[in-house]
Amino acid sequence: MAMIRHTGASLAFQPRIRKGAFHEASWRYGCRRFSVYNRTYISSTFSDPLTEYWKVTTDVAIWPVMGERQVEITGPDAAEFVQFLTPRNMAKCAVNQCKYALITAQDGGIVSDPIILKLAEDRFWLSTSDCDLELWAKGVAVNSPMNVSIRDAEVSVIQVQGPKSPRLMANLFGENVLDLKYYWLTPADFQGSELKISRTGWSGEFGYEIYLENPDQGDALFDALMEAGETSGVAPGAVNHVRRIESGILSWGIDMTMEETPYDVGLGRLVELDGTPDFIGRDALTRLGEQPPKKRLIGLEVAGPPLSPNETPWPLTVDGATVGNITSLAYSPRLDKNIALGLAAAEHAELGASLDVETWSGPQKAMVVKTPFLPKRQSGSARERFASTAA
């Protein structure tokens, strides 16, 4: 059966879906395409994907990402409880530091892949992917003797991403923000309220995330960011499907699910068995780490004309037999190629392997290649970038 692209489809706004602090500002600035992420509307495209791709790779883009919810864990046993959720050794995490981590199930499957923000010794935010992490944590707490409180912190996140992001951030928050290290956070004042800013993001580019706890300031903060970035070519936009695939950044629910383990998707480095206290899935991950995975995350170059992103996993076949799926696909303007991430049986995941895939343009060849397709550009000195983009 031929594949059907659902062009022209729309999404109905409903009271049961949360809007977040930046929703109305997103509408004012031209966003007319939304998706739903963590039962929250998330801004998609403001102009067009190609324009927004070049904006985040050459200037600075603002992405209101209200669906990136913060599961807050507080209480006398908060640190012990967070450690029980993840195989990442959180003893190495200082206050005001962030850690990319996996939340694992008893069988080693990946429940979520949050960034964990340590706000205090007894207060954490788990910046969650599109999954029921709050309910998972509350379910774990039901049968736990640990004294913790768990809630959605009602925080709205806006990302400021791109090579000129330090200039914008310094204009608005002062040059001290330029000293913020990668995967660290700092408080900042905005019109009398405290924000939190982290040197993180989902674009593969240099950037920041801003966490707003006062929803009444959503419009004002969005406007202030746009004004602060006027000399840097700022524009609102989604941060950016193509760029995250180029960078090899995975999306939970697409490139990995509870059916995959950290070893299947190349994230075994986040399973820190030595010296880490007990955590959910330790026995399974210890056993799985001693044997080769049966499937592997792969990068692919897909032949043919430029392709629109896939709407469903596309089966990968060899001699007519399904051996895996393409999970995420995009056309890369800089590489002038269709690139994709996927999961395939280990015996068909070696570099250079040739696979078949049915695409929007018909059957095409897909070749397994090394990832990332293009490097991340998140490291380095913010002060150097600030100086190089001086008006």
As laid out across the biggest beta sheet, the strand order is 12-13-14-11-3-15
Number of beta strands: 21
By CATH, the architecture of the largest domain is named 2-Layer Sandwich
How widely separated are the two ends?
55 Å
Structural class: alpha+beta
Unreliable spans are: none
How many structural domains does the protein architecture include? 3
- Portion of residues in beta strands equals 25-35%
Order of helices and strands: HEEHEEHEEEEEHEEHEEEHEHHEEEEEEH
Quickly count the helices: 9
Which descriptor suits the 3D outline?
globular
Molecular structure report:
The model has no long low-confidence stretch (mean pLDDT 95). 19% of the residues lie in helices and 30% in strands. The N and C termini lie far apart (55 Å). It has helices at 23-28, 49-58, 78-85, 133-142, 165-173, 218-228, 241-246, 282-288, 382-388; strands spanning 34-37, 40-43, 60-64, 70-74, 98-100, 103-104, 110-112, 115-120, 123-127, 149-152, 156-161, 185-190, 193-198, 207-212, 234-236, 295-302, 314-318, 321-332, 337-345, 354-359, 362-369. The chain is of the alpha+beta class and 391 residues long. Helix 5 packs across helix 9. It has three domains: 23-69 and 155-244, Gyrase A, domain 2 (2-Layer Sandwich); 70-152, 2-Layer Sandwich (Alpha-Beta Plaits); 294-376, Elongation Factor Tu (Ef-tu), domain 3, CATH 2.40.30. Strands 12-13-14-11-3-15 form a six-stranded mixed sheet, with helices on both faces.
